């Protein structure tokens, strides 16, 4: 079962197996920020989503009252984002900008952001470290950076289960975590290496955990009800943070890093 399937099960961003754990972490962080503000400070929190595409994260965040800037190189994706935000009644809180990491400083200007999200993008940029530096540069004092990136060991296991043992070994030992020339992803990361890359920007890493530990390996027929999906999500959350078995987080299809200024 190849990891490129990146299956999104039934439900929205809050409940889909691919996104639920990250959504919970991000919205919990934003809720804490709102609660910590001085009395009378009710301005919307400002979020920047690099590579946010059609707004799978941005639109639900705008529905919570946040102001979201989506920076993406694809005009087609941004057009879909604009339609989606209008349909959901949050167009005034979502700004779509065509660009990339090199343009972030100019886009943000003096209005640094409370949260920067880079989910599923670091794998495909030309220079991941330079991208992280650019992201860190637009985070406001006291703000946070959220990184979600593909993880190496998940594809090793997926290639083994598919009987592709040579590909599994290549993914395990290669510098970029790829299983061969036909691999659709330019790179994957190990949690420890990604943490070090984020720390090199000067940010302080607060949390690192694996997501989608088991969900990409479970047949869809076994996760056909809300109760089944909830149970699987709870299992993944418990496994990724278990005091003795937290190493299971390294098997997640992705790793989620939260860091602050």
From TrEMBL:
Top-rank lineage group of the source organism: Bacteria
Gene3D superfamilies on file: Vaccinia Virus protein VP39 (3.40.50.150)
InterPro entries, A to Z: SAM-dependent_MTases_sf
GO BP annotations, alphabetical order: methylation
Keywords recorded for this protein, A-Z: Methyltransferase, S-adenosyl-L-methionine, Transferase
An MF annotation (GO) of this entry: methyltransferase activity
Family annotation (PANTHER family): METHYLTRANSFERASE, UBIQUINONE BIOSYNTHESIS O-METHYLTRANSFERASE, MITOCHONDRIAL
Protein name: Methyltransferase
Organism: Pedococcus aerophilus
